Amino acid sequence: MPENDSIHYDVVIIGAGAAGLMCAATAAGRGKNTIVLDHANKMAKKVLMSGGGKCNFTNMYVEPENFLSQNPHFCKSALSRYTQWDFISLVDKYGIEYYEKELGQLFCKQSSKEIRDLLLNECQKVNARIQLKCDVLSVKPVQDGFTIDTSLGQYKCNSLIIATGGLSIPTMGASGFGYQIAEQFGHKIVETGAGLTPLTFKGKLLQQFIELAGNSARCRVSCGGQSFTNAVLFTHKGLSGPAILQISNYWKKGDYLEVNWMPDLDIDEWLSKGISQRPEALLRTLLATEFSQTIANFICRLIGFDKKLKQIDHKEKLHIINLLENWRIFPDDVEGYRVAEVTLGGVDTSEISSKTFESQRQSGLYFIGEVLDVTGHLGGFNFQWAWASGYAAGQYV
Ligand SMILES: Cc1cc2nc3c(=O)[nH]c(=O)nc-3n(C[C@H](O)[C@H](O)[C@H](O)COP(=O)(O)OP(=O)(O)OC[C@H]3O[C@@H](n4cnc5c(N)ncnc54)[C@H](O)[C@@H]3O)c2cc1C
Pairing mode, if any, of strands 216-223 and 199-200? Predict the structure, then answer.
């Protein structure tokens, strides 16, 4: 028999992910009688699978510029009140070992389970309850709060927090539930899309790239006024790797990507040196000093010729430099929610308080984490947003 919880709670949180659990621990820590409801069979599934099982739990260089939103100022208040250093000191308190992988990204040395256990323990020590396998059927506003009908019976509360995340990876429990609730109370939804996702090619272009599958190169990739320098991985479907996941947040169908194949070099100087020092070498041999031979051959095909370096004339040299610096490529699509790490767009922040996360349309209703129109770059920023927004709302409910 399912348990019928008819108790009245101060706070009901829907979604036992990063934001919901942080909010539960904070609210219950302030003496609020708190329960978290989730339809999944496990809590914090995305924490567990994140960072390749090592959870990139924050970043040492968090700035508002690392977040996309129609209102770029919305994230500032919460991020400044619960910073990366606050979460790092919590991680330290639990003796969890971590390391910086690159660019300030902090990962667990052992396992992302340690972050899940930290969240669970933070909830348990202040008696925040977590109820899994609970399908929420409806939410109704009543005087001084809400009633929530679920597969396990009815819950009543004064404050209702929606922490149901975005649409990415439906097999992990993702649903559009948070958007439905937002719309029920008259909130607008900023158009959603798959973020931090690989880009795909089709047809002739895909055929052209297929031989590169498995190869990678450090490139600077630009689109929509943004640039990221990191690894680009060629796959059987198109492009992936950190630089591509990052730029996918800014890419729209029909846009091209501009790729600098050698972002750390002065390409003119590098090529001139090659020509004077190795005149008998072929262009593809020189390129293979910087790339795998497969990529070097591919770049030669893009350039349109391969010849001894001493045979390259001035016009050809400019053509090579231009292609290595500003190669344009038109991806066909994003790979989509099945593999996307985040959801772009979400609940419009214009009617949500950036201080308390309470709805300005419905007193006692709060939205936190990824369900909101706030999306972080790759590198621990999305969890930092979950911690910061969860903490901020937990302080006010
Ligand atoms: C593969 C992958 C790797 C990632 N790696 C990183 C990383 O290393 N670093 C980083 O910063 N970010 C990473 N992210 C992004 C990060 O996981 C999310 O941004 C973050 O989890 C969002 O937290 P949240 O609490 O808002 O939502 P979620 O963590 O998605 O939690 C939402 C919860 O709500 C529940 N829920 C949904 N619908 C309902 C419903 N109808 N009823 C009841 N419960 C519901 C879900 O089951 C889930 O438990 C990764 C994402 C993915 C998919």
Answer: unpaired
- Residue 13's CATH number: 3.50.50.60
Predicted confidence band of residue 191 (pLDDT cuts 50, 70, 90): very high
Angle among Cα 62, 381, 198 to the nearest 5 degrees reads 130
Q: What is the pLDDT of residues 328-363, one digit of tens each?
A: 999 999 999 999 999 999 999 999 999 999 999 999
Nearest atom, ligand 1, residue 19 CA: 25
Question: Do residue 145 and residue 17 come from a single domain?
Answer: yes
The chain-wide mean pLDDT, for the chain, equals 96
16 CA closest ligand 1 atom index: 49
Last residue of a domain, one of 301, 316, 334: 334
| 165 CA distance to ligand 1 middle (Å) | 5
- Do 314 and 165 sit in the same domain of this protein? no
Distance 197 CA to ligand 1 centre (A): 15
> Which pLDDT belongs to residue 6?
63
What is the distance between the alpha carbons of residues 311 and 201, in angstroms, rounded to a whole number?
Answer: 35
State the pTM of this model: 0.96
Nearest residue (CA) to ligand 1, atom 41: 177
CA distances from 237 to 220, 255, 327 (A): 20, 18, 19
Task: Report if residue 111 sits inside a domain.
Answer: yes
